[in-house]
Amino acid sequence: MKVIFHYDCGPWLDTQLKSLAAEGLYVEVCSEDDETRFHYLLKTCDILWHVLRPVTADHIDSAPQLKLIQKIGVGVNTIDIKAATARSIAVCNMPGTNSQAVAEMTLGLMLSVLRKLNAIDRQLRETGRWRSPAVWQDDLGEIKGRTIGLVGFGAVPIILAPILSAMGARVLYCSRSSKPDQPYRQVSKAELLADSDVISLHLPETAQTRHWL
To answer: Which stretches of the chain score pLDDT less than 70?
Structure first.
């Protein structure tokens, strides 16, 4: 079967993908930026391994043999589900596969903002000096002692919350359903917005969640 991996990949991953030919999967790697080649490959592909760039009805119409769109990740909001359904093309995702990576990235972004790492890195590269200007000092902070508001409490917050708590943060969450097995306090949207020093969104993009904040 012919497969399109619609993303860039390094040498190691490219070798792994090519080795799948022994199992009958012939994988073509196509950069998300190469729309011309993507349309060309769609003409004969059976399976699309989709990462981020939206899969539109036009793409689906260009793929007469397409049987499966496999999301390499979780969110399927970047796939035209209606167009796929009209063609009886299966759409699958991979819940939980990137939860640890997303939790770690979220923690890294929180620390970067609280410690102004981007600004300090830029200053160090430009001036060769490591210093915090006085104007920054009142805004610098730590996770410890902060109130962190998590919006949604699925696979990623379940990993992230105990890490934040162990670092000394107070964790609140706002979710459609309560999590009685978790030691964190569930609050309303209004209370979370009023009490949190840092707010982290962990919601699928839907008509109901768009513009939540």
So the answer is: none
User: Residue 100 corresponds to which tokens in the numbers above?
Assistant: 């640890």
Whole-prediction pTM? 0.79
Q: What domains, with CATH codes, occur in the chain? A: 2-92 (3.40.50.720), 99-201 (3.40.50.720)
Q: Residues 153, 173: contact at Cβ < 8 Å?
A: yes
Compute the mean pLDDT over every residue in the chain, rounded to the nearest whole number.
94
Please write the tens of the pLDDT for every residue from 65-96.
999 999 999 889 999 999 999 999 999 999 88
